[in-house]
Amino acid sequence: MAEIRVKDLHFSYTPGVEVLRGINLVLSPGSVAIVGQNGAGKSTFVRLLNGLLRPTQGEVWVDDLSTASTTVASMARKVGLVFQNPTDQLFKSRVLDEVMFGPLNLGASQDEARQRAEAALARVGLTGAEARNPYDLGLAERKLVTIASVLAMDTPVVILDEPTIAQDVTGVRQIGDIVTWLQEQGRTVITITHDMDFVARYFQRVLVFQAGQVLADGTAEEIFSRPDLLRQAGLEPPPITVLGQRLGLARPPLTVEGFVARLRGPNGLAP
Amino acid sequence: MSLIRVENLRYRYPRQSALALDGVSFTVEPGEFVGIVGPNKAGKSTLCQALVGLVPHFYKGAIGGKVEVAGLDVHTTSVGEVSRRAGLVFQSPFTQMSGAKFSVYEEVAFGLERAGIPRDEMIRRIEWSLRLLGLWDLRDRSPFALSGGQMQRLAIASVLVMQPEVLILDEPTSQLDPAGTSEVFAAVGDLCRQGMAVVMAEHKVDRIAARADKVLVLNRGRVLAWGPPGEVFSLDGLEEHGVAVPAVTRAARELGWREQGGTYPVTVEAAARIGGAALGRDQG
């Protein structure tokens, strides 16, 4: 279990151009989706949570560690981050070595690292790919390898930057199951995504980023029932939610199953 | 005359025993927008690469059947020759960057330079494509300082600037936000109206259903279905093959909401119309 506290966080890559402009948040165990337009500061924000970037103003605390005074190596015990582009992260020539690398660096023995790597590969559905070269795999599978390498590190906080890129329906479901599993274990799972169906289905809390600030913070149902807010953030609710709104349902349905159940509900077909 | 004609295309990668494409046939007319959908490893990317000749010329392997693009026999024409008529946007934008250019503007100029386009024409076309993809304000940035979504739009711009007759896009919106995705689909619509033939492999089936003229469903290298979105997504058993179906179509199927022709609605608008009528009937 870990708690992340973000206080008055500002960040700029180039002086004078602020990418993050004053963020205050407490992130407790559970699943959190970060949504918002390209360039809203989402990827920059998560890089500040594991200390890869340091605040230009304000603070990030993970439990009792401030990222400003802790090395990235120490933060790695607390916060695992899966990059958006798997190529930024893969450097071993065998899938198994790649996934064992994290646990080995955290001091695990060969045997333990191998066990953790195999378990992580099983969880992402890549059992059997241990001896493959990650670069011989397709983009979707390369992404799953990077997710496995972070799962193998067993950190209380797991951050996924656009995990569903290039995934088909089966892949998206698998990653959704991983989010649910992490959440049930009392871990904090923070996910950047543009896939609103994915958000609606798997996440307890949604943060809407816009121009370096948090525009809204609530449940998926709260966020997706506010078209004004979504428009302002350049987002669109899932199609099934839009359909529910068009048909005049009071609370927006978030999933196909929810929509169908509502229409078939105790009141018959009446919305 | 069809801009793309694929006849019984079969292909096997080197050192593989299974066929990556197995008997694929379809045609695309000028101005048509065709979506390719299906689970991963179904052959979507392989088919995209076969339409410009990277399969088989670059990847080697064994090929059979016929691929004709913009009047060229792709199997007997060099990739360079085909690429003057047909442009491919790769799945990963990182793969597409030349690596030799240090600004967005010059990156887009790269292909035009290779093709020996006159300077005035280059300047005009570069501005057009950068503006179309919303990159004009980023023109002096390094391609490698862009976000994933921006780089993806740059990859599209650098292919569009070549003004191909045929445009092939392999999951071009995977890293784009909803607004950026809408822009790409709108741009594709514009290009089709100007007579370009567009083929797009894409997992966002809701968008494909709403925008594409026809949908090609691939599974294990074979064509599972081919036709207008309403017909294709109304077929039974797609989901068992791991093929994504638009959310509104799944809901309509569960509730028995059909179009007059017997198919299920594939867009929010159509589902709302049919659903609204069904609910009104039940209440009245």
Describe this structure in words.
The complex is a heterodimer of chains A (271) and B (284). Chain A is of the alpha/beta class and 271 residues long. Chain A folds into three domains: 158 residues, P-loop containing nucleotide triphosphate hydrolases (Rossmann fold); 65 residues, no CATH class; 31 residues, no CATH class. Chain A is built from eleven helices and ten strands. In chain A, the strands form two sheets. Chain A has a six-stranded mixed beta sheet, sandwiched between helices. Chain B folds into three domains: 159 residues, Rossmann fold, CATH 3.40.50; 63 residues, no CATH class; 39 residues, no CATH class. Chain B is an alpha/beta fold and 284 residues long. The longest helix of chain B has 16 residues. At the A-B interface, helix 5, helix 6, helix 10 and helix 11 of A face helix 7, helix 8, helix 11 and helix 12 of B.
For this entry, give a set of tags.
heterodimer; A: about 270 residues; Rossmann fold; 3 domains; six-stranded mixed sheet; four-stranded antiparallel sheet; B: about 280 residues; alpha/beta; about 20% strand
Per-chain topology:
The complex is a heterodimer of chains A (271) and B (284).
Chain A: E1 4-14, E2 17-27, E3 30-36, H1 42-49, E4 57-62, E5 65-66, H2 72-75, E6 79-82, H3 95-105, H4 110-123, H5 139-151, E7 157-161, H6 169-184, E8 188-192, H7 196-202, E9 205-210, E10 213-218, H8 220-224, H9 227-232, H10 239-246, H11 256-264
Parallel strand pairs in A: 3-8, 3-9, 6-7, 7-8
Antiparallel strand pairs in A: 1-2, 1-4, 4-5, 9-10
Helix pairs in contact in A: 3-4, 3-5, 4-5
Chain B: E1 4-12, E2 21-28, E3 33-37, H1 44-52, H2 54-57, E4 62-69, E5 72-73, H3 79-83, E6 86-89, H4 93-96, H5 104-114, H6 119-132, H7 148-160, E7 166-170, H8 178-193, E8 197-201, H9 205-211, E9 214-219, E10 222-227, H10 229-233, H11 247-255, H12 268-283
Parallel strand pairs in B: 3-8, 3-9, 6-7, 7-8
Antiparallel strand pairs in B: 1-2, 1-4, 4-5, 9-10
Helix pairs in contact in B: 5-6, 5-7, 6-7
